[in-house]
Amino acid sequence: DAMVIQNPRYQVTQFGKPVTLSCSQTLNHNVMYWYQQKSSQAPKLLFHYYDKDFNNEADTPDNFQSRRPNTSFCFLDIRSPGLGDAAMYLCATSMRHTDEQFFGPGTRLTVL
Amino acid sequence: SQQGEEDPQALSIQEGENATMNCSYKTSINNLQWYRQNSGRGLVHLILIRSNEREKHSGRLRVTLDTSKKSSSLLITASRAADTASYFCATDGRSNYQLIWGAGTKLIIKP
Questions:
Q1: What CA–CA distance (Å, rounded) separates B42 from A36?
Q2: What Å distances lie between residue B6 and B21, B23, B103, B105, CA to CA?
């Protein structure tokens, strides 16, 4: 089945220790998104790629970086996690901007 | 920024009853979408309704859209325990690339 996969499902890191979250998709969608979600709040868009074109939201901290080496994979790097970065991180894909989005199961990040 | 406002914030009903959630938005849109999120999981797309549509059905789900009032409603008929989840509306807000999300309605179905 076509799907969006996120690894790991749970990630524990120490304050300031870099962490990388991964997302892969078998849908062959053009757009890949990274969202941060806290405490069942609405998801907050961090950045997205349309193919290789990267778009960073204005209020996304510099601490957060992303890579999309190919159509299928996208990575979220948090260079120096703080306690405030503990959250659920959701990857999503869509064929075009503002089409329905397909979400992965999320990675729950804990920062100690 | 959050365009969508959803009400109620939380809703608790008995299994078998109907559940209605509302979403209001501020700017003109091309489409409005509803998503469901079970606790601790990713979001699942439910329905997309375009600005030229007034009503759409999918199984036990019925979505209405009133562009003059800038509002939408999601009706779940004959609710089941498995419908317990948070429900989010999202609009394109005539923007070029991102969805604008509501704060969500937390629905609890009591057995």
A1: 11
A2: 7, 4, 6, 6
Low-confidence ranges of chain B (pLDDT < 50): 1-2
Chain B residues with beta carbon closer than 8 angstroms to that of A41: 103-104
pLDDT at position B39: 86
Per-residue pLDDT of chain A (112 residues; tens, 9 = 90+): 669 999 999 999 999 999 999 999 999 999 999 999 998 789 999 999 999 999 998 899 999 999 999 999 999 999 999 999 999 999 999 998 888 999 999 999 999 9
CA nearest neighbour of B31 among A46, A50, A29, A100: A100
CB contact under 8 A, A101 and B103: no
| A positions 33-72 inside 8 Å of B (CB) | 40-43, 45, 48, 50, 55
Q: Which of A105, A98, A96, A88 is nearest to A38 (CA)?
A: A88
Q: Nearest-CA neighbor of B68 among B20, B25, B13, B12?
A: B25
Closest residue in A to B3 (Cα–Cα): A42
Please report the pLDDT score of residue B1 as a whole number.
36
Q: B85, B36 in Cβ contact below 8 A? A: yes
- The continuous run of DSSP H or E covering A35 comes out as strand A31-37
